[in-house]
């Protein structure tokens, strides 16, 4: 897949830095704003594809439509790895120390994501089927519990999680704006999909000995649905509207899926508690 080479001039670096600061600042401000919002609103925002979205927008600013579509396909292929990563983290959350838990989870994610994205012509359809199968299988490792509600204390405090997500978004914008051409669609997609922000959240839960970790990790697993929706929409919309418009418009179906997921989850939790 051909990629446009980026000449690293001073104006380009300055423009990229400005984009990174804008993206990171936007994410930070948004998460701070929803910190005191109703739990359903906060839960929806926390499951949105911030880092992947700004990463693909950064690619779209410099790379061809075909490059972005290829990267979105690789991102879809890596989604089962994210499900496995969350389930594995939940399984060993109380059994391992924080350093061992982080290393194990990230190595497991990286290994599986690399294998999956290396499968030739996996295609969006098969990638979605594999993600669905991974979600079903993950329930055996980390059972779904409708009673694990994102109440205000659990869903809120988004502001505490804002800075690592904002920093990752900014770094991803810089790297993918300047070096996506050298990395190629596969590595660019994996960089955008790297669950580093989730690791920071998990570290915070582990260090604070928070009892909210099951509900938080359950939310992280369900976020796979909005991530998948974003990547699917990106593939279709980029082909229709072009790279930049497509990657930005793909947020709309992702937001809709995130809101629907949270609404259904809350309804199930109310039934389980009634």
Automatic annotation (TrEMBL):
Keywords: Membrane, Transmembrane, Transmembrane helix. The keyword Oxidoreductase does not apply. The chain crosses the membrane at residues 41-61, 67-88, 100-119, 125-150, 162-183, 189-208, 220-238, 244-264. This is Uncharacterized protein. It comes from Palleronia aestuarii.
């Amino acid at each position: 897949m051909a990629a446009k080479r980026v000449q690293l001039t001073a104006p380009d670096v300055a423009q990229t830095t400005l984009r990174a600061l804008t993206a990171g600042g936007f994410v930070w401000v948004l998460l701070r704003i929803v910190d005191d919002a109703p739990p359903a609103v906060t839960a929806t925002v926390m499951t949105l594809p911030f880092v992947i979205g700004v990463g693909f927008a950064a690619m779209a600013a410099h790379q061809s439509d075909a490059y972005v579509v290829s990267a979105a396909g690789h991102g879809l292929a890596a989604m089962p790895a994210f499900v496995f990563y969350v389930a594995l983290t939940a399984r060993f959350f109380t059994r391992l120390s924080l350093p061992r838990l982080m290393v194990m989870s990230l190595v497991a994610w990286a290994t599986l994501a690399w294998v999956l994205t290396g499968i030739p012509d996996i295609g969006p359809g098969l990638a979605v089927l594999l993600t669905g199968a991974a979600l079903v299988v993950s329930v055996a490792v980390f059972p779904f519990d409708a009673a694990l509600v994102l109440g205000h204390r659990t869903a809120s405090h988004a502001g505490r999680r804002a800075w690592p997500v904002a920093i990752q978004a900014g770094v991803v914008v810089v790297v993918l704006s300047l070096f996506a051409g050298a990395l190629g669609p596969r590595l660019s997609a994996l960089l955008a999909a790297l669950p580093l922000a989730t690791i920071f959240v998990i570290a915070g839960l582990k260090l604070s000995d928070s009892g909210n970790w099951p509900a938080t990790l359950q939310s992280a697993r369900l976020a796979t649905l909005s991530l998948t929706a974003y990547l699917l929409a990106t593939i279709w919309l980029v082909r229709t509207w072009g790279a930049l418009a497509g990657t930005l418009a793909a947020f709309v179906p992702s937001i809709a899926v995130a809101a629907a997921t949270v609404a259904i989850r809350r309804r199930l939790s109310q039934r389980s508690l009634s």
